[in-house]
Amino acid sequence: MKLFKYNEAATVSATNNIVNLIALDEPQIGKSVDNTPVLIYSTGIGVEIPEDYIGIVVANEDLVKTSLAMMNGIQIYKPGETGELIIFFRLTCGNAFPSLYKKDETIAKLILVETKNFNIEVENTYENIQTVEAIKTEEIQNITNTNELSL
To answer: Residue 136: pLDDT band by 50, 70, 90 thresholds?
Structure first.
């Protein structure tokens, strides 16, 4: 993965396949399609996702301490995508005084995940489930008929 600093004040903090996304400034305020306020945080960091990988932006673990929810829950970046990582949040506090992220705080994380050689196996267990259900039904009938419970 390649990271780019679009602003000299941007902070790069990365370990292995995780990049901490840090607020470059206080948030800008915008509006969503339903006219509700949206907080827009610039990170000043750009990324280029390599082939056979995806980048997943997730909320920071301390999001519960704020009055925010990350728009769309997560953001996915495909191979070859480039550009600044901008994070969008909506307020969750109604009319109460909001608790927001401030400048230089970690607001989200970018996780690089390898997709090459990724296999999904699907096992048909329907027949096994039918067999288990038949055995359970037979055991219940036996218990009902004999009024005994064996473990």
So the answer is: low
Contact 56, 115 (CB under 8 A): no
Per-residue burial over 34-46, b = 16 or more CB atoms within 10 Å of its CB, e = otherwise = eeeebbebbbbbb
Distances (CA, A) of 59 to 15, 43, 144, 151: 17, 14, 53, 47
> What is the fold of 2-114?
Deoxyuridine 5'-Triphosphate Nucleotidohydrolase; Chain A (2.70.40)
Residue 149 has pLDDT above 50, yes or no: no
Structure-block tokens of residue 129:
């489930």
Reported confidence tier of residue 146, pLDDT bands at 50, 70, 90: low
Neighbours of 55 (CB within 10 A): 22
Residue 68 CA to residue 90 CA, distance in Å, equals 6
Measured between alpha carbons, how far is 142 from 151 in angstroms, rounded to an integer?
A: 13
pTM of the model: 0.69
pLDDT of residue 142: 64
